[in-house]
Design goal:
Length: 106
C-alpha cells in the first residue's frame, strides 16, 4: 500500500512542480516578485520530492545504500533538510514581502 500511495504522490508532485517551474520561468512572469518566490518553492519542492519520496520507494525493493555508506546517508539527510528549510523560508519571506507591499500601498 505504501508503494502505491507514495508512487502516486511522487508522480503527481513532480508533475505539478515541473508545470509550475515551466509556467513561472516565462519571461513575462519574471518581473513579479511573487512568481520568483513561487518558483523557488517549486524548485525546492522538486528536490524534496526526489530526495525523500522516490528514494523511500526505491528502498522498498532494493538494498538501502544509506545503510552501507555513511557519506550517502549524510548527503541524503543534508539535501532533505536544506531543501525543506529553503521551502519554508521562502514561503515566510514571500508572505512577509507581500504584507510589506500591501502596507506600503495602504
Amino acid at each position: 500500500m505504501t508503494r502505491y500511495i507514495l508512487s502516486t504522490i511522487a508522480v503527481f508532485g513532480n508533475l505539478g512542480h515541473i508545470i509550475s517551474i515551466t509556467i513561472l520561468s516565462q519571461e513575462q512572469r519574471g518581473s513579479n516578485s511573487c512568481s520568483i518566490y513561487l518558483l523557488a518553492t517549486s524548485i525546492s519542492g522538486l528536490i524534496i520530492m526526489n530526495w525523500a519520496i522516490i528514494l523511500l520507494v526505491y528502498v522498498l525493493d532494493h538494498i538501502d545504500l544509506m545503510n552501507t555508506s555513511l557519506t550517502l546517508c549524510h548527503i541524503r539527510v543534508y539535501m532533505k533538510h536544506t531543501s525543506s528549510m529553503c521551502f519554508r523560508y521562502v514561503v515566510v519571506v514571500a508572505c512577509t514581502h507581500q504584507c510589506g507591499v500591501y502596507e506600503l500601498y495602504d
